[in-house]
């Protein structure tokens, strides 16, 4: 047996003659005897089970496999295992070394979100780990993703649970770096629904649309799960002649006649005006609400 050679195989994506390939690169050890390498490519077919898709014997310190949407498709997690042999005899071999799993497809970062009904915007990044091949479409080399949301609860007639800053995004081809060959970002916000409906779960779905090659045609990325934490909603009141209870629970009366500013947000364009008229006659100075305007 050869000793452990620290081959350290790594998978990277690459375009070869306009088609998407994965490249398994490994370190060539400083061995006194000439070596050759066996590279076995496999994909994760079910959790914990790998399926062999290609076997190469090479003198080079790399091996390619094509993503042909037959035995290797978008959405697959791919591995390569490298074993070194002495060139003149196959009996002497090193221990096989396996690469980390390479996910080939579209990724969402983060893969799931936990947000609250507090109006905050959360950035969701969408990236492709493989380059986008555009033969004959050099000017607009991109994949367009149509985005949609779905509430997984029983709120069939309720408002949507989350809001996205865009209905579709374009993944424009860029040089591959740090496991991203194209990326786009959008924001996700929980809808404040003024209802005590508990924590709810939604999902965001992305679907490639428009022109695309065979590799992308049958591919739908994995959904993003979004958990929305319910927050209590503040209330304020103006009722009868009128008694007023503020958001923070203060109580007082306003018997005057006229138009008044009932409340105004300090952070956004939101205010409520109320109009009061005389409803007490000569006997008492009492006013009642007769109109409201909200912006």
Automatic annotation (TrEMBL):
Coiled coil location: none
Keywords: Disulfide bond, Signal
One function term, GO molecular function aspect: signaling receptor binding
A GO term from the CC aspect: extracellular region
Pfam families listed in its UniProt record: Ig_VWDE (PF25776)
PANTHER family membership: EGF-LIKE-DOMAIN, MULTIPLE 7, 8, VON WILLEBRAND FACTOR D AND EGF DOMAIN-CONTAINING PROTEIN
Protein known as: von Willebrand factor D and EGF domain-containing protein
Gene symbol of the encoding locus: Vwde_0
